[in-house]
Amino acid sequence: MSYIGGIGPRRARHVLACPAGICHHTRVISYATRILWLLGVVILVIALPGAYRLIPVLGLGVPYYVSLLLHPDRDCRACGGTGRHRGWMFLWTRRQCPSCAGQGRHRRLGNIILHPNRDVLAERVANRAKVRRNLPRA
After folding, report:
1. What is the CA radius of gyration of the chain?
2. Across the chain, where does the E strand assignment appear?
């Protein structure tokens, strides 16, 4: 049996199944790793006594809060962030995504919880546009 580039047959099958370096295993591995890290942090916070619980909370909470300020939106899962859905019968047709109303994004859960009454920039711009919809530009 011949090998591709000096790697074994099992790895060669994997290379052939995942062309251009895009592997279908990476998403599953990264999601599982993310869950394990989150579980580990929760166990660590519970296990630490008293004031030491503040260290991991601040170490993870402050960067998360900054991340919410810089990136308040996430991609829409229904349309993949495009804002459009493809037709099921005629594949060249498209329509507006009903989940995100064609925006391609939703507010992140942390942003909804921490800032329930504050609009993000795109929402403020849209609200201003609604107010001046039929008014002449000044």
Report:
1. 23
2. 73-75, 84-86, 94-96, 105-107
